[in-house]
Amino acid sequence: MNEQKRPPTNILNILIHNKNRGLYDERIKLPNLDQIKSLIYGSNRNENSNELGPVQELVQKLEIKNYDEFVGLDPNKVFSFGCDVKTGSDRHHCFMFFSSKKLLMNINRKDGKPGIFHIDCTYKINTNRFPVIAFGQSDLEGHFHLICLAITSHEKEIDFKKFYQTLIDLCLMVNIQFSPKFVVQDGCDASKNATSIFVDQPNIIMCYFHVIKNVKEKTKKFNKTLIEMILSDIKNLHYSKNLIEYEVNKHKILSKWFFNYPYLKQFAAYFIKEWIDGVFNNWIIFTSPHGFAGTNNPVESFNAQFKKQFTKFAPRSLLDCVKMICNEVIPVYSESSREFKLIRTPDCKVKSIANKLNDKLFIAASFNSSIVFFYGLNTISIIDL
After folding, report:
1. What is the pTM of this model?
2. Dihedral through CA 261, CA 263, CA 264, CA 266, nearest 10?
3. pLDDT by residue (tens digit) across 150-168?
4. Domain residue spans of the chain
5. Spatial separation of the C-alpha atoms in residues 66 and 59, rounded to whole Å
6. Which residues cross the membrane (predicted)?
7. 316: which DSSP letter?
8. Tens of pLDDT, residues 243-284
9. What is the DSSP letter of 23?
10. 216-225 contacts at long range (C-beta below 8 A, 24 or more positions apart)
């Protein structure tokens, strides 16, 4: 069935074209797109079910079950944990989890302070259409430090809870403390709700670029000047340094949208509902730790490199996908893992701007030597050294 691997939309177009040419009986109703998708992808899963045996065998060989097995591992050797290899149907979800001893150690910062974690799914990795979950932490240089990868057949709340619970159980078994304070993600309700599994729920930081992406989609029919104004207003709101400044900026922006641009009322109502009062309103810069990435750029860059370097943008069978993760991805990222940067090194652009600033505008606080006030740019900024 579908040996040429045509997309469902192409199949539907061919059927419509052939019917218009009189090649089919007029009394026979053509299937709709959803029916074709169900037939094709259901068939693919049935065909690929024959490879579940080899996948299960491979995963079982890599599985660790206790602390002693973990301690005895080579630091860069891949292991599996908490896997449940099934067909991936709606009744039988499939889940596989992979990491290495060295990658798992990326959970905790050396200075003991809370870091910021990133979770994201990447697609078109295998022919079963199972997403791959990438989870890791970013440092102050914005570099992504991979912790683990998981393959899941679905993206429902129960699947993300399975992922987090597996990581929690693994850390408990090997005596690693895992209590994330901040997690950056896109607007996925399932992954957000899954964090309820933690005793101390982490703060969910909404990826700023995801907000902008959605806003651009909502404003694509507006004229260019209006779009630029809206994006500039949202950018100013994003860079609010504290809650007071945020409230002032929010009042100014919304007042302008409602009273100066009456035709923006519908968009303004959407923006308030989704990004001001909604569950994903933690996209303002002061809601995340100072100096850390407030977007999912670190993990999205990893996903892009994943496809470019390992899959070559060509989906693989589920078995080959698992082999690739175990034999290539995990070992490569484990062996080449970089140092976790605890300070941000200024680049040429920052140094150039700094040289233009007047030193007299920086005043050290008398009550705290690590606090500096900057009197410039029409505002007073507080710098915590």
Report:
1. 0.79
2. 150
3. 999 999 999 999 999 999 9
4. 8-48, 49-205+295-335, 209-282, 348-384
5. 16
6. 361-383
7. B
8. 999 999 999 999 999 999 989 999 999 999 999 999 999 999
9. -
10. 218/267, 218/270, 219/267
